[in-house]
Amino acid sequence: MTFGHRIVAGIAACAVLGTGMALGSSPTARADWKGLTEVSHSRYVVSSDGSDVSVTTTLTITNVDTEVTPESPNGRWEYKAYTVNVPATAQNVQATSGGAPLQVTLEEGSAADVRSARIGFPKLLYGESRTIELTFSFPGADFRAKDTTRVGDGFAAFGALAQGDPGKVRLEIVAPSDMELRSSRGAFAPTKSGGDTVWTAEEATVDYGIWSFVVLRDPKTADERRVEVGGSRVTLLGLPGDEDWLDFGEGLLKERLPAIEALTGLPLSRQITVYEDLAAESAGNYGIDLAAGVAGAPQQLDRTTFTRQAVLAGFDEGRFPERWVREGLASFVTHRVSGEGETDLVEVDTGDENAQPLVAWGEEGGSSSAAEEEYAYRAAHGVLRILLDDLDDEAVTEVLSGALSGESAYELPGSTEGIAPTDQWRLLDLVEVRGGNTFAADAYLDWVLDDATKGRLDGRAPTRRAYSELDEKDGAWQPPRPLRAQMAAWEFDEANASIERFADVAALAGELQRSTADAGLAVPRGVQEAYENAEGPDAVAETLRETDELLDSLTRVVASAEDDAGPLVGIGRRLLGTGGDLDRARSAFEAGDFDQLRRELADLQGERERAGRLGMGIVAGAAGLLIVVIGVVLLLRLRRRPVRGAPPRPPSSAAPGWGPGGDSPAPARVSRDSDPGGRQLGQPEQRRPPPQSPPRQGPPGPDPSGRPWPTSEPPPQRPGGQWPTSN
């Protein structure tokens, strides 16, 4: 319980509003504080050198109590004391009224940082008023003491109180202008006064007046330390003299930043600053300035809260419009990387006065009570754990990196198309599409949405099913961009109309991808982009049909060249070297250069015809040449064989009895070749004319001696000019 809450507890013990009242002549105390009106003005003065804070409160109370009871049948009550809470470290507590001192008794408070100051005075009868001036000062407690009051060089933190009726109360904080003020409740308007700033609040923040835990600090007085880990750079700003906090923060960041970067898929988005914060009421009271990448972390050495505040500082301003989303994500990341922060999931209980749909959770400093804030923090963490706990680290990283980058779930991871703040609707898409959590919408219905926002889920499920069916039709490509944008914007009526318009085109896209894959080709460059960016179905349908027709023509040409060309065209193509033309045609198709492709196809058709003619000419020429060669070979062989039916060779004139007169033969030249029997075969140098007897038909008979005839000359003719015939 913080200082402000402890005031409430003290008040309850001494009648509401911290007023201790005594019955006129009776010792019986009453708990009805409505018998007093209160007008007050409290002023807290802070110095920059760490001196004690001084406080002056001027309070005017009036007895208006007319309640009739057995103790007071006349309905007239009297009061003898007034009680107010002061810081536990308060010193020199004094009260005066009309210049006369009043008795002040300090009593034990309900907690470590508060005490009760009971101010006694003479009877305050019905209709009477009394003005009391209360003064005191207080130093700060030690770092990390249970007492949350801190006062030091360039900083101060304390609970500031001005009790009084609504509209009749004023609280002022006076501090050097170099100091900045942040409050847990209420709005303080600054006014310059010399070198000081007077921060003034006049609107009640609680039913007993104004109470706020305020933190003032001069940033220039902080002790600074820089930490660089991986892609993240962090500046730590500690309170002067608190080295323990700096050592703690540096060690924790070095330990956890690598795990945070690995889980989110990103380094902390920029140079961030984590400063030692003195807020004491709740986690939401630690300072956050997402525009500057600044967050406060508790001066208590709290590992869980320090980590989640550093994660929050890394979120870009406006990335997560709903508070529950960014607070829940920061808590989830902290829990996932450390195992700490085992927050029990809050069960939705409509009967719990603190329960509220998370969509209604306002920003820090809003109207939520401390109990409502506590519930909302736990509930936000609980919802994110329901959404992401069951996913493995890879799926969690896909969801978180997309959320931190502002990506649409209907775009490819890393795409800059459709970048926008990740509101609660886009987060749900990321969890379902990239995380695969099919129960995420149920968590929204139970925890997040109110009656006014639940209607946004109507029709979402059937539209998503229709979108998925279209995405199946178009193969590996994304559906057209207008449809993706409509889904990301939750414009489901428009998306359904687009799904119907693009259904046929999606089927054409899927068929084209299958056909090109079957042909061993890639889809032409630019065709996929034309489909995915198509504003309407007509133009892209024409592109897809044109591509399919050209693919068909190319496929037929390739098949003709490689399979059905026939030997004659194949011979011609090998001689003409047309393989390069086919490669150019394929390249033109894949490059999406359809004009070049048509030229290549026309050239290939012409080359096919030329190759056919060339092949036929080559074959015909080769056939003619073969015939000539065969003729020459046959002719040569015929010339080397004996002539069938040739007349017998006339006998040599030198042979005995062969001369004209039967005289002795003339000398004849004979060869030195011997026959197989050892005889010399003579060959005359001159031959007689062949006899005129008819030639013998059929092959010559064998030599009577059984030896083959020499091929160099015809066999000698037997007397009588005829070869013997076989019997």
**Quick one: how many beta strands?**
21
Catalogue the unreliable spans. Answer: 1-32, 571-578, 652-727
Mean pLDDT: 81
Regarding quaternary structure, how should these chains be classified?
Answer: single chain
Strand order in the largest sheet = 3-6-5-4-7-2-1-10-13-12
Structural class: alpha+beta
Give the N-terminus to C-terminus distance in angstroms. Answer: 150 Å
The shape, in one word, is elongated
Integer-rounded radius of gyration: 56 Å
Percent of residues in β-strands:
15-25%
Q: For the report, how would you describe the main beta sheet?
A: 10 strands, mixed
Helical coverage, percent range: 25-40%
Tell me the number of helical segments per DSSP (H or I, 4 or more residues long): 17
List keywords for this structure.
five-stranded mixed sheet, disordered C terminus, ten-stranded mixed sheet, 37% helix, disordered N terminus, 21 strands, alpha+beta
